[in-house]
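Quick illustration for those who missed Monday's session on complexes.
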Amino acid sequence: MRELFDLQGKVAAVTGANTGLGQAMAVALAEAGAKIALVGRSEPAETQRAIEKAGGESVAIMADLSKADCAEKVIAETVSSLGAINILVNNAGIIRRTDALDFTEEDWNDVLDTNLKTPFFLAKAAAARMVQSGGGKIINVASLLSFQGGIRVASYTASKSGLAGLTRLLANEWAARGINVNAIVPGYFATNNTRALRSDADRNREILSRIPAGRWGDPSDLAGTVIFLASRASDYVHGAMLPVDGGWLAR
Ligand code: NAP
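Prediction with NAP bound:
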């Protein structure tokens, strides 16, 4: 049974792995045996130490993921430094909170570029290699706002709703080529991304009262899901949006 979830001999690229959900998923994949390319614009020293402590191997690949033209280079560097690309986790993402009436073009473009455009071009560059090597796993990090409207986050909702559609489209195109494309749908997790919400006492109370599990997610809550979607255990799972949300969407 353990072999189903074993990632020994696999190489995973995880974007935005210096902190938050990306850090937790990178460490989990390393603990399951994968070598990890930590892709982002900030030094992932803390993540590298955690992976080393777990007996794993990682390299840092520096890239500004708001520019989609870095995609080919990021994947080529992953292959040249770790020997392959078997798993891609499109995790890096940003959010801008402003009333729709005041929303700027910059806040629209920055978020769409980082959360939707670059993930597509990274997936394209990774899939080109995966097709050659007999398959692979692409995991997009979506959001509750892939399903719901949200408020004051126009570009974020558009990007994460777009990412849900893209997950299904890529699954359709690549399933027969041995590539699984799926998405994790995190609920409310305690990371930098949600600091503003957690420090607003009213919003914090409102959010907690609506989560059936009654608590914010901890980044480590994603470990089992990312290993499942990265491993042989999910070989017949395509185009799924898997919520890890303490029950939020079930409510
Ligand atoms: P976070 O702590 O703010 O981490 C975001 C990561 O993305 C960081 O590593 C950040 O790097 C990286 N990043 C952002 N822009 C980048 C750029 N231009 N180039 C390179 N790296 C960039 O947020 P998080 O909560 O872990 O979020 C991770 C993902 O989960 C995001 O896609 C987010 O939308 C999604 N998500 C989060 C929640 C939640 O409740 N936390 C819920 C649903 C979905 P820096 O540290 O350098 O900024």
